């Protein structure tokens, strides 16, 4: 297979020779990484667990809408279709990712969930149900969060209460009739609560009040301002970056006033539950029929059997470069900047890592499991630079 720039895209099977790179994950971060690896003429494969590209997007609720307009949603080499200042829903995003992989003939293996990633004398092995893929280097592009999180208090509710995570919510018609408690004050919680309020009573429980930003300011989209002011490129370790990382994430385009006008009742954090009753931290309570837990996701790196990669669920890295020689991550929240995990902003990190990998490939500097401390020797990256 070849990419559009005629660079070999490295479509191989588990029984072929050792590849240059294995990319684990075939959504936006993995595809952006693949585009850059192809331009460097490296032999690689993208291993995607789902049965189709864009599956994680198609699996979200029907009305999910991006808060980034089309002009900020493109991956490298291919614009996102649609007029500027329009906001795609989930299915156009999934279709774009599918078209992107096809346009550049990227070697994506579907139904290839990696259950075991480990080091070898030659680099890395990724085990799937189809076999074992070997490469000199590996890039984990599974995103910052993989597993829906439901708090333990949910287990104390009666079995007659309908409970689902926002990952499983599709539309109001799929829920039983009657009132709904939405737990979680992020973008998902606000969007779902507003949609449900059109047809039923909704209570929205918020543990932490995140700052709300309007979608448009002075006639321009919010991201126009964020990019013009350089805020999307604020680095994670800068003084401003550290302050932003310590705060709750922004909620974009939603309004407490608009939700109240729609009849949504705001509640504080959930403290406990028993039977059909949920109690809140202010001592109030609510009898519930249906609860949607918009309580986010957690990371799962249990399939990476390499010491020193993560601590307390967090990847140990510097701009996606780990202390394990030859192992990289892309698509993490605040990997380098505020935009690192966003669809249209992951390109910078992918380009950076692909350049590091290509430089090591050109010098013939192979990762060795025997290097003390997990740091590669000085090479193409320069003194003290890990790549």
Number of helices: 8
Nearest-angstrom radius of gyration? 22 Å
Sheet of most strands: 7 strands, mixed
Q: Give the overall average pLDDT.
A: 89
Fraction of residues in β-strands: 15-25%
* Total beta strand runs: 25
Structural class, from secondary structure content? alpha/beta
Into which percent range does the helicity of residues fall? 10-25%
State the low-pLDDT regions, or none.
1-12, 369-387
Distance between the termini: 27 Å
Which descriptor suits the 3D outline?
Answer: globular
Produce the secondary structure layout.
Elements: E1 19-24, H1 28-39, E2 44-47, H2 55-58, H3 90-103, E3 108-109, E4 116-119, E5 124-128, E6 131-140, E7 147-148, E8 162-165, E9 180-183, H4 187-196, E10 202-205, E11 212-213, E12 216-217, E13 220-221, H5 222-228, H6 239-246, E14 251-252, H7 256-261, E15 265-267, E16 270-274, E17 277-280, E18 285-287, E19 290-293, E20 297-298, E21 310-311, E22 314-315, E23 317-318, E24 321-322, E25 327-329, H8 347-363
Parallel strand pairs: 1-2, 1-6, 2-3, 6-25, 8-19, 9-10, 9-19, 10-15, 11-14
Antiparallel strand pairs: 4-5, 5-6, 7-20, 12-13, 16-17, 17-18, 21-22, 23-24
Helix pairs in contact: 1-8
Label this structure with key terms.
five-stranded parallel beta sheet; 22% strand; 8 helices; globular
Describe the 3D structure.
There is one protein chain. By secondary structure, this protein is of the alpha/beta class. The chain has helices at 28-39, 55-58, 90-103, 187-196, 222-228, 239-246, 256-261, 347-363; strands spanning 19-24, 44-47, 108-109, 116-119, 124-128, 131-140, 147-148, 162-165, 180-183, 202-205, 212-213, 216-217, 220-221, 251-252, 265-267, 270-274, 277-280, 285-287, 290-293, 297-298, 310-311, 314-315, 317-318, 321-322, 327-329. Strands 1, 2, 3, 4, 5, 6 and 25 form a seven-stranded mixed sheet that branches. A five-stranded parallel sheet has the order 8-19-9-10-15, covered by helices on one side. Strands 16-17-18 form a three-stranded antiparallel sheet, with no helix packed on it. The protein is globular, with a radius of gyration of 22 Å.
């Amino acid at each position: 297979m070849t990419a559009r720039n005629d660079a070999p895209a490295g479509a191989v099977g588990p029984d072929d020779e050792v590849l240059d790179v294995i990319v684990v994950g075939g959504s936006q971060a993995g595809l952006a990484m693949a585009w850059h690896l192809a331009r460097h003429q490296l032999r690689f494969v993208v291993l995607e667990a789902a049965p189709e590209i864009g599956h994680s997007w198609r699996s979200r609720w029907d009305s999910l809408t991006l808060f980034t307009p089309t002009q900020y949603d493109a991956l490298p080499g291919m614009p996102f279709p649609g007029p500027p200042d329009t906001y795609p829903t989930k299915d156009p995003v999934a279709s774009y990712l599918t078209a992107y992989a096809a346009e550049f003939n990227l070697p994506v293996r579907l139904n290839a969930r990696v259950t075991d990633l480990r080091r070898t004398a030659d680099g890395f092995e990724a085990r799937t149900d189809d076999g074992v893929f070997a490469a000199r280097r590996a890039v984990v592009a599974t995103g910052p969060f993989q597993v829906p999180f439901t708090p333990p208090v949910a287990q104390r509710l009666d079995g007659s209460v309908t409970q689902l995570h926002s990952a499983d919510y599709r539309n109001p018609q799929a829920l039983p009739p009657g009132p709904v408690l939405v737990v979680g004050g992020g973008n998902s919680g606000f969007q779902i609560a507003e949609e449900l309020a059109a047809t039923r009573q909704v209570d929205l429980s918020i543990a932490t009040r995140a700052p709300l930003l309007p979608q448009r300011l002075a006639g321009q989209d919010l991201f126009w301002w964020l990019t013009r002011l350089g805020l999307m490129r604020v680095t994670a370790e800068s003084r401003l970056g550290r302050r932003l990382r310590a705060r709750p994430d922004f909620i974009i385009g939603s309004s407490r006033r608009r939700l109240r006008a729609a009849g949504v009742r705001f509640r504080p954090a959930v403290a406990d539950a028993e039977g059909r009753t949920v109690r809140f931290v202010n001592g109030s309570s609510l009898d519930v029929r249906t609860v949607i837990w918009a309580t986010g996701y957690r990371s799962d790196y249990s399939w990476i059997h390499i010491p020193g990669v993560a601590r307390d669920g967090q990847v140990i890295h510097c701009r996606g470069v780990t202390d394990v020689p030859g192992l990289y991550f892309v698509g993490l929240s605040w990997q380098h900047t505020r935009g690192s995990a966003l669809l249209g902003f992951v390109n910078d990190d992918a380009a950076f890592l692909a350049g590091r990998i290509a430089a090591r490939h050109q010098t013939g500097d192979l990762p060795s499991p025997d290097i003390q401390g997990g740091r590669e020797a000085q090479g193409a990256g320069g003194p003290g630079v890990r790549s």
